Amino acid sequence: MIPALMPTYARADLAFVRGEGARLWAEDGRRFLDFGSGIATSSLGHAHPHLVRAIADQAAKVMHVSNLYRIPQAERLAARHVAASFADSVFFCNSGAEANEGMIKAMRRTMAETGRPERYRIITFEGAFHGRTLATLAATGNPKYLDGFGPKVDGFDQVAFGNMNAVRDAITPATAGVIIEPVQGEGGVRPAELRFLRELRAMCDEYGLLLGLDEVQIGMGRSGKLWAHQWAGIEPDVMSAAKGIGGGFPLGAILAKEHVAKHLKPGTHGTTYGGNPLACAAGNAVLDVILADGFLDRVDRVARHLWRGLLALKERNADLIEDVRGAGLLLGIRLREGVLNTDLQAAAVAEGLLTVAAGQNVLRLAPPLIITEAEADEAVMLLERALARMREAAVPKAAAQ
Ligand SMILES: *Cc1c(COP(=O)(O)O)cnc(C)c1O
Fold first, then answer.
1. Residue 88 annotated in ligand binding
2. Which of 202, 250, 321, 342 places its Cα 20 to 30 Å from the Cα of 363?
3. Is the overall model pTM greater than 0.85, yes or no?
4. What is the pLDDT of residues 138-153, one digit of tens each?
5. Ligand 1 pocket residue status of 242, Cβ below 6 Å
6. For residue 188, is pLDDT > 80?
7. Which residues make up the binding site for pyridoxal 5'-phosphate (predicted)?
Protein backbone atom coordinates (compact mmCIF):
# COMPACT_ATOMS: atom_id res chain seq x y z
CA MET A 1 0.00 0.00 0.00
CA ILE A 2 1.22 3.48 -0.81
CA PRO A 3 2.50 5.49 2.17
CA ALA A 4 0.25 8.37 3.23
CA LEU A 5 3.23 10.65 2.62
CA MET A 6 3.71 10.51 -1.14
CA PRO A 7 6.88 8.54 -1.83
CA THR A 8 8.71 11.09 -4.01
CA TYR A 9 11.94 10.60 -2.05
CA ALA A 10 14.04 7.57 -1.16
CA ARG A 11 14.42 8.79 2.40
CA ALA A 12 17.06 7.67 4.89
CA ASP A 13 15.46 6.03 7.90
CA LEU A 14 16.36 8.92 10.19
CA ALA A 15 14.05 11.36 11.92
CA PHE A 16 15.49 14.30 13.82
CA VAL A 17 13.88 15.66 16.93
CA ARG A 18 16.21 18.50 17.87
CA GLY A 19 19.08 20.57 16.60
CA GLU A 20 21.59 23.07 17.92
CA GLY A 21 24.18 24.80 15.76
CA ALA A 22 25.68 22.22 13.42
CA ARG A 23 24.33 19.30 15.49
CA LEU A 24 21.19 17.23 15.03
CA TRP A 25 19.76 14.60 17.34
CA ALA A 26 17.72 11.71 15.94
CA GLU A 27 14.70 10.02 17.54
CA ASP A 28 16.88 7.11 18.68
CA GLY A 29 19.22 9.50 20.53
CA ARG A 30 22.07 9.39 18.02
CA ARG A 31 23.89 12.71 17.50
CA PHE A 32 25.03 13.93 14.07
CA LEU A 33 27.27 16.64 12.70
CA ASP A 34 25.16 18.26 9.99
CA PHE A 35 27.21 19.06 6.89
CA GLY A 36 24.15 18.98 4.65
CA SER A 37 22.09 21.80 6.23
CA GLY A 38 18.91 20.35 4.74
CA ILE A 39 20.49 20.87 1.28
CA ALA A 40 22.41 24.09 1.86
CA THR A 41 19.44 25.77 3.52
CA SER A 42 19.85 25.94 7.30
CA SER A 43 22.49 28.62 6.86
CA LEU A 44 22.57 29.63 10.53
CA GLY A 45 22.50 26.04 11.75
CA HIS A 46 19.71 24.74 13.95
CA ALA A 47 17.82 26.65 16.64
CA HIS A 48 19.84 29.82 16.15
CA PRO A 49 18.51 31.96 19.03
CA HIS A 50 18.20 35.17 16.99
CA LEU A 51 16.27 33.44 14.19
CA VAL A 52 14.10 31.48 16.63
CA ARG A 53 13.16 34.63 18.53
CA ALA A 54 12.39 36.60 15.34
CA ILE A 55 10.05 33.87 14.08
CA ALA A 56 8.35 33.34 17.45
CA ASP A 57 7.83 37.07 18.01
CA GLN A 58 6.42 37.64 14.52
CA ALA A 59 4.21 34.52 14.66
CA ALA A 60 2.64 35.84 17.84
CA LYS A 61 1.81 39.15 16.12
CA VAL A 62 0.74 38.43 12.53
CA MET A 63 1.94 35.71 10.17
CA HIS A 64 0.14 36.34 6.95
CA VAL A 65 -1.92 39.13 5.41
CA SER A 66 -1.42 38.65 1.59
CA ASN A 67 0.16 41.05 -0.83
CA LEU A 68 -3.04 43.09 -1.02
CA TYR A 69 -1.56 45.13 1.82
CA ARG A 70 1.76 46.77 2.65
CA ILE A 71 4.13 44.45 4.48
CA PRO A 72 6.72 46.47 6.42
CA GLN A 73 8.86 43.37 7.11
CA ALA A 74 9.09 42.74 3.36
CA GLU A 75 9.78 46.39 2.56
CA ARG A 76 12.62 46.39 5.08
CA LEU A 77 14.06 43.07 3.86
CA ALA A 78 13.93 44.21 0.22
CA ALA A 79 15.59 47.53 1.06
CA ARG A 80 18.38 45.72 2.90
CA HIS A 81 18.95 43.28 0.02
CA VAL A 82 19.02 46.21 -2.40
CA ALA A 83 21.55 48.06 -0.23
CA ALA A 84 23.79 44.97 -0.04
CA SER A 85 23.70 43.91 -3.70
CA PHE A 86 23.57 44.88 -7.40
CA ALA A 87 19.76 44.86 -7.29
CA ASP A 88 17.36 47.81 -7.38
CA SER A 89 14.25 45.84 -6.48
CA VAL A 90 13.24 42.48 -5.00
CA PHE A 91 10.24 40.14 -5.40
CA PHE A 92 9.67 37.57 -2.65
CA CYS A 93 8.29 34.07 -3.17
CA ASN A 94 8.58 30.74 -1.37
CA SER A 95 11.11 28.54 -3.11
CA GLY A 96 13.96 28.32 -5.56
CA ALA A 97 11.88 26.95 -8.41
CA GLU A 98 9.40 29.79 -7.99
CA ALA A 99 12.21 32.34 -7.95
CA ASN A 100 13.59 30.89 -11.19
CA GLU A 101 10.15 30.71 -12.77
CA GLY A 102 9.73 34.41 -11.94
CA MET A 103 13.22 35.23 -13.21
CA ILE A 104 12.41 33.54 -16.55
CA LYS A 105 9.14 35.50 -16.76
CA ALA A 106 10.97 38.74 -15.92
CA MET A 107 13.55 38.13 -18.68
CA ARG A 108 10.89 37.34 -21.29
CA ARG A 109 8.71 40.25 -20.24
CA THR A 110 11.62 42.68 -20.40
CA MET A 111 12.26 41.67 -24.01
CA ALA A 112 8.56 41.86 -24.88
CA GLU A 113 8.19 45.34 -23.40
CA THR A 114 11.35 46.73 -25.00
CA GLY A 115 10.25 45.96 -28.55
CA ARG A 116 11.80 42.51 -28.85
CA PRO A 117 8.88 40.12 -28.17
CA GLU A 118 10.44 37.47 -30.44
CA ARG A 119 13.30 37.12 -27.95
CA TYR A 120 11.96 34.60 -25.45
CA ARG A 121 14.54 31.79 -25.47
CA ILE A 122 17.07 31.31 -22.68
CA ILE A 123 20.43 29.58 -22.87
CA THR A 124 21.13 27.25 -19.93
CA PHE A 125 23.91 24.76 -19.16
CA GLU A 126 24.43 21.03 -19.01
CA GLY A 127 24.52 19.85 -15.40
CA ALA A 128 22.28 22.72 -14.29
CA PHE A 129 19.53 22.46 -11.72
CA HIS A 130 16.87 25.15 -11.63
CA GLY A 131 13.89 23.42 -9.99
CA ARG A 132 10.95 21.06 -10.49
CA THR A 133 8.22 23.21 -12.04
CA LEU A 134 7.57 22.60 -15.74
CA ALA A 135 9.55 25.61 -16.99
CA THR A 136 12.44 25.21 -14.54
CA LEU A 137 12.64 21.51 -15.48
CA ALA A 138 12.99 22.54 -19.11
CA ALA A 139 15.71 24.99 -18.05
CA THR A 140 17.36 22.17 -16.08
CA GLY A 141 17.18 19.96 -19.14
CA ASN A 142 17.91 16.69 -17.35
CA PRO A 143 16.07 13.95 -19.33
CA LYS A 144 15.73 11.91 -16.11
CA TYR A 145 13.51 14.61 -14.55
CA LEU A 146 11.61 15.48 -17.75
CA ASP A 147 10.56 11.95 -18.72
CA GLY A 148 6.84 11.29 -18.69
CA PHE A 149 5.68 14.84 -18.12
CA GLY A 150 4.54 15.66 -21.63
CA PRO A 151 6.17 18.07 -24.03
CA LYS A 152 9.07 19.97 -22.51
CA VAL A 153 8.27 23.67 -22.05
CA ASP A 154 9.68 25.44 -25.08
CA GLY A 155 12.24 28.21 -24.86
CA PHE A 156 15.44 26.72 -23.46
CA ASP A 157 18.65 25.92 -25.32
CA GLN A 158 21.23 23.98 -23.37
CA VAL A 159 24.98 24.11 -24.00
CA ALA A 160 28.12 22.71 -22.37
CA PHE A 161 29.03 24.31 -19.02
CA GLY A 162 31.96 26.66 -19.39
CA ASN A 163 32.10 26.60 -23.18
CA MET A 164 31.95 30.15 -24.55
CA ASN A 165 31.96 29.07 -28.21
CA ALA A 166 28.93 26.84 -27.56
CA VAL A 167 27.13 29.78 -25.95
CA ARG A 168 27.84 32.05 -28.91
CA ASP A 169 26.72 29.34 -31.36
CA ALA A 170 23.43 28.95 -29.46
CA ILE A 171 22.46 32.62 -29.80
CA THR A 172 19.64 33.19 -32.30
CA PRO A 173 17.32 36.14 -33.02
CA ALA A 174 14.98 34.50 -30.48
CA THR A 175 17.46 34.57 -27.56
CA ALA A 176 16.51 36.67 -24.52
CA GLY A 177 19.42 35.79 -22.29
CA VAL A 178 21.42 33.29 -20.30
CA ILE A 179 20.78 31.66 -16.91
CA ILE A 180 23.69 30.09 -15.04
CA GLU A 181 24.56 28.90 -11.54
CA PRO A 182 27.95 30.43 -10.66
CA VAL A 183 28.58 27.12 -8.90
CA GLN A 184 26.48 24.17 -10.03
CA GLY A 185 25.20 22.50 -6.86
CA GLU A 186 23.05 19.48 -7.72
CA GLY A 187 25.07 18.95 -10.90
CA GLY A 188 28.16 18.01 -8.91
CA VAL A 189 29.48 21.10 -7.10
CA ARG A 190 31.10 22.51 -10.23
CA PRO A 191 32.23 26.15 -10.07
CA ALA A 192 32.15 28.16 -13.29
CA GLU A 193 35.48 29.79 -13.98
CA LEU A 194 35.38 33.45 -12.98
CA ARG A 195 36.68 34.28 -16.45
CA PHE A 196 33.70 32.44 -17.98
CA LEU A 197 31.26 34.49 -15.90
CA ARG A 198 32.98 37.69 -17.01
CA GLU A 199 32.86 36.58 -20.65
CA LEU A 200 29.14 35.82 -20.33
CA ARG A 201 28.56 39.30 -18.93
CA ALA A 202 30.50 40.89 -21.79
CA MET A 203 28.70 38.76 -24.38
CA CYS A 204 25.25 39.66 -22.97
CA ASP A 205 26.22 43.34 -23.16
CA GLU A 206 27.48 42.90 -26.72
CA TYR A 207 24.28 41.21 -27.97
CA GLY A 208 21.78 43.09 -25.79
CA LEU A 209 20.92 39.91 -23.86
CA LEU A 210 20.06 39.54 -20.18
CA LEU A 211 22.31 37.73 -17.72
CA GLY A 212 20.32 35.80 -15.11
CA LEU A 213 22.10 34.08 -12.24
CA ASP A 214 20.67 31.23 -10.19
CA GLU A 215 22.26 31.74 -6.77
CA VAL A 216 19.67 29.64 -4.95
CA GLN A 217 22.33 27.31 -3.55
CA ILE A 218 25.67 29.16 -3.61
CA GLY A 219 24.25 32.57 -2.70
CA MET A 220 23.57 34.24 0.64
CA GLY A 221 27.06 33.92 2.04
CA ARG A 222 27.86 30.32 1.19
CA SER A 223 30.69 31.31 -1.17
CA GLY A 224 32.30 33.54 1.46
CA LYS A 225 30.83 36.66 -0.16
CA LEU A 226 27.15 37.56 0.10
CA TRP A 227 26.64 36.59 -3.58
CA ALA A 228 28.99 34.33 -5.50
CA HIS A 229 29.12 36.54 -8.61
CA GLN A 230 30.96 39.16 -6.53
CA TRP A 231 34.05 36.93 -6.79
CA ALA A 232 33.98 37.55 -10.57
CA GLY A 233 33.45 41.28 -10.14
CA ILE A 234 30.36 41.21 -12.36
CA GLU A 235 26.69 42.08 -11.86
CA PRO A 236 23.78 40.16 -13.34
CA ASP A 237 20.62 41.83 -14.65
CA VAL A 238 18.51 39.53 -12.54
CA MET A 239 19.15 36.79 -9.98
CA SER A 240 17.21 34.12 -8.12
CA ALA A 241 17.77 33.27 -4.46
CA ALA A 242 16.16 30.88 -1.96
CA LYS A 243 17.55 28.10 0.28
CA GLY A 244 19.83 29.99 2.71
CA ILE A 245 17.99 33.32 2.63
CA GLY A 246 15.35 32.12 5.09
CA GLY A 247 17.72 30.05 7.21
CA GLY A 248 15.31 27.09 6.94
CA PHE A 249 12.09 29.07 6.74
CA PRO A 250 10.70 28.82 3.17
CA LEU A 251 11.64 32.01 1.34
CA GLY A 252 12.67 32.73 -2.24
CA ALA A 253 13.48 35.96 -4.04
CA ILE A 254 14.06 37.52 -7.43
CA LEU A 255 16.60 40.33 -7.22
CA ALA A 256 16.70 42.58 -10.28
CA LYS A 257 18.09 45.75 -11.74
CA GLU A 258 15.48 48.41 -12.44
CA HIS A 259 15.54 47.87 -16.21
CA VAL A 260 14.22 44.33 -15.58
CA ALA A 261 12.21 44.85 -12.40
CA LYS A 262 10.10 47.64 -13.87
CA HIS A 263 8.46 45.17 -16.26
CA LEU A 264 6.92 43.15 -13.42
CA LYS A 265 4.06 45.44 -12.47
CA PRO A 266 0.62 44.85 -10.97
CA GLY A 267 -1.06 41.99 -12.79
CA THR A 268 2.09 40.54 -14.38
CA HIS A 269 3.29 38.32 -11.55
CA GLY A 270 2.10 37.44 -8.08
CA THR A 271 1.98 35.10 -5.11
CA THR A 272 -0.32 34.55 -2.14
CA TYR A 273 2.23 33.63 0.54
CA GLY A 274 5.35 35.19 -0.97
CA GLY A 275 7.09 37.66 1.32
CA ASN A 276 4.60 37.34 4.15
CA PRO A 277 5.42 38.92 7.53
CA LEU A 278 6.63 35.65 9.06
CA ALA A 279 8.91 34.68 6.16
CA CYS A 280 10.36 38.18 6.01
CA ALA A 281 10.94 38.28 9.77
CA ALA A 282 13.01 35.14 9.26
CA GLY A 283 14.77 36.70 6.26
CA ASN A 284 15.63 39.83 8.23
CA ALA A 285 16.99 37.79 11.14
CA VAL A 286 19.22 35.80 8.77
CA LEU A 287 20.52 39.04 7.24
CA ASP A 288 21.23 40.46 10.72
CA VAL A 289 23.64 37.59 11.30
CA ILE A 290 25.20 37.31 7.83
CA LEU A 291 25.76 41.04 7.38
CA ALA A 292 27.22 41.47 10.88
CA ASP A 293 30.80 42.70 10.90
CA GLY A 294 33.29 39.95 10.13
CA PHE A 295 30.75 37.15 9.58
CA LEU A 296 31.49 36.58 5.88
CA ASP A 297 35.24 36.89 6.46
CA ARG A 298 34.89 34.13 9.01
CA VAL A 299 32.91 31.98 6.53
CA ASP A 300 35.74 32.47 4.04
CA ARG A 301 38.36 31.55 6.63
CA VAL A 302 36.57 28.39 7.83
CA ALA A 303 35.88 27.41 4.21
CA ARG A 304 39.58 27.63 3.32
CA HIS A 305 40.42 25.61 6.42
CA LEU A 306 37.92 22.89 5.41
CA TRP A 307 39.24 22.97 1.84
CA ARG A 308 42.80 22.33 3.06
CA GLY A 309 41.53 19.53 5.30
CA LEU A 310 39.75 17.90 2.37
CA LEU A 311 42.79 18.19 0.11
CA ALA A 312 44.88 16.42 2.75
CA LEU A 313 42.12 13.81 3.09
CA LYS A 314 42.31 13.25 -0.65
CA GLU A 315 46.11 12.80 -0.50
CA ARG A 316 45.71 10.15 2.20
CA ASN A 317 42.84 8.41 0.39
CA ALA A 318 43.78 8.79 -3.25
CA ASP A 319 42.61 5.20 -3.92
CA LEU A 320 39.00 6.34 -3.33
CA ILE A 321 38.95 10.11 -3.92
CA GLU A 322 39.45 11.53 -7.38
CA ASP A 323 39.06 15.21 -6.74
CA VAL A 324 37.95 17.92 -4.31
CA ARG A 325 36.06 20.85 -5.81
CA GLY A 326 33.69 23.68 -5.03
CA ALA A 327 33.74 27.12 -3.52
CA GLY A 328 33.36 28.48 -0.01
CA LEU A 329 31.23 26.19 2.11
CA LEU A 330 29.82 24.29 -0.88
CA LEU A 331 32.44 21.63 -1.38
CA GLY A 332 32.37 18.34 -3.24
CA ILE A 333 34.38 15.16 -2.97
CA ARG A 334 34.39 13.39 -6.32
CA LEU A 335 34.94 9.68 -5.92
CA ARG A 336 36.79 7.35 -8.22
CA GLU A 337 34.89 5.24 -10.67
CA GLY A 338 33.31 2.25 -8.94
CA VAL A 339 33.25 4.04 -5.56
CA LEU A 340 29.71 5.31 -5.07
CA ASN A 341 28.98 8.70 -3.53
CA THR A 342 25.80 7.26 -1.99
CA ASP A 343 27.86 4.51 -0.32
CA LEU A 344 30.18 7.10 1.20
CA GLN A 345 27.15 9.11 2.27
CA ALA A 346 25.75 6.05 4.07
CA ALA A 347 29.14 5.26 5.64
CA ALA A 348 29.36 8.87 6.85
CA VAL A 349 25.90 8.56 8.46
CA ALA A 350 27.18 5.49 10.29
CA GLU A 351 30.04 7.67 11.60
CA GLY A 352 27.68 10.46 12.64
CA LEU A 353 28.11 12.87 9.72
CA LEU A 354 25.33 14.10 7.43
CA THR A 355 26.18 15.04 3.83
CA VAL A 356 24.30 15.24 0.53
CA ALA A 357 24.99 13.37 -2.70
CA ALA A 358 25.32 15.38 -5.92
CA GLY A 359 25.75 14.62 -9.62
CA GLN A 360 28.96 13.27 -11.19
CA ASN A 361 29.49 10.88 -8.25
CA VAL A 362 30.21 13.75 -5.88
CA LEU A 363 29.58 13.83 -2.14
CA ARG A 364 28.49 17.35 -1.28
CA LEU A 365 29.40 19.19 1.92
CA ALA A 366 27.21 22.23 2.64
CA PRO A 367 27.56 22.87 6.38
CA PRO A 368 25.80 25.73 8.17
CA LEU A 369 27.76 28.95 7.73
CA ILE A 370 28.29 29.16 11.50
CA ILE A 371 30.60 26.12 11.77
CA THR A 372 33.89 26.41 13.61
CA GLU A 373 37.29 25.22 12.43
CA ALA A 374 37.05 22.45 15.05
CA GLU A 375 33.79 21.26 13.49
CA ALA A 376 35.42 21.33 10.04
CA ASP A 377 38.26 19.18 11.40
CA GLU A 378 35.75 16.82 12.98
CA ALA A 379 33.94 16.40 9.65
CA VAL A 380 37.22 15.54 7.90
CA MET A 381 38.00 13.01 10.64
CA LEU A 382 34.54 11.42 10.32
CA LEU A 383 34.93 11.28 6.53
CA GLU A 384 38.27 9.53 6.96
CA ARG A 385 36.59 6.92 9.15
CA ALA A 386 33.77 6.57 6.63
CA LEU A 387 36.31 5.97 3.84
CA ALA A 388 38.02 3.31 5.99
CA ARG A 389 34.62 1.72 6.60
CA MET A 390 34.06 1.55 2.82
CA ARG A 391 37.45 -0.04 2.26
CA GLU A 392 36.69 -2.70 4.86
CA ALA A 393 33.27 -3.38 3.32
CA ALA A 394 34.92 -3.80 -0.09
CA VAL A 395 37.51 -6.37 1.08
CA PRO A 396 35.22 -9.37 1.81
CA LYS A 397 33.42 -8.72 -1.49
CA ALA A 398 36.69 -8.89 -3.40
CA ALA A 399 37.80 -11.97 -1.46
CA ALA A 400 34.56 -13.77 -2.26
CA GLN A 401 35.03 -13.36 -5.99
C1 LIG B 1 17.54 23.85 -4.88
C2 LIG B 1 17.75 24.63 -6.09
C3 LIG B 1 16.67 25.11 -6.84
C4 LIG B 1 15.23 24.77 -6.52
O5 LIG B 1 14.86 25.23 -5.27
P6 LIG B 1 13.50 24.68 -4.57
O7 LIG B 1 13.37 25.52 -3.35
O8 LIG B 1 13.72 23.24 -4.31
O9 LIG B 1 12.41 24.90 -5.54
C10 LIG B 1 16.94 25.92 -7.93
N11 LIG B 1 18.20 26.23 -8.27
C12 LIG B 1 19.26 25.78 -7.57
C13 LIG B 1 20.64 26.19 -7.98
C14 LIG B 1 19.08 24.96 -6.47
O15 LIG B 1 20.12 24.50 -5.79
1. no
2. 250
3. yes
4. 999 999 999 999 999 9
5. yes
6. yes
7. 96-97, 129, 214-217, 272
The answer to whether the annotation marks 73 as part of a ligand binding site is no
Closest CA to ligand 1's atom 11: 130
What separation in angstroms does the CA of 353 have from each of 25, 30, 32, 187, 389?
A: 11, 11, 5, 22, 13
Going by CATH, does the domain composed of 49-290 fall within 3.40.640.10? yes
Q: Is the shortest distance between the CB of 185 and ligand 1 below 6 Å?
A: yes
Q: What is the 97 CA–ligand 1 centroid distance (Å)?
A: 6
Average pLDDT over residues 97-120: 98
Give the nearest ligand 1 atom to 132 CA. 9
> What is the chain's mean pLDDT, rounded?
97
Superfamily name and number for 16-47+294-400: Aspartate Aminotransferase, domain 1 (3.90.1150.10)
CA of 129 to the centre of ligand 1 (A): 7
Question: Among 12, 225, 259, 228, which residue's Cα sits nearest to residue 114?
Answer: 259
**Burial class for 49, CB neighbours closer than 10 Å (0-12, 13-18, 19+):** exposed
pLDDT for 133 beyond 70:
yes
Instruction: Kindly state if the Cβ of 125 falls inside 6 Å of ligand 1.
Output: no
pLDDT value at residue 261: 98
pLDDT of amino acid 394: 82
Query: In this model, does residue 265 exceed pLDDT 70?
Result: yes
Is 132 annotated in a binding site? The answer is: yes
Domain boundaries, the chain: 16-47+294-400, 49-290
Long-range contacts of range 319-323, CB-CB < 8 Å, 24 or more positions apart?
A: 319/391, 320/344, 320/387, 320/390, 320/391, 321/387
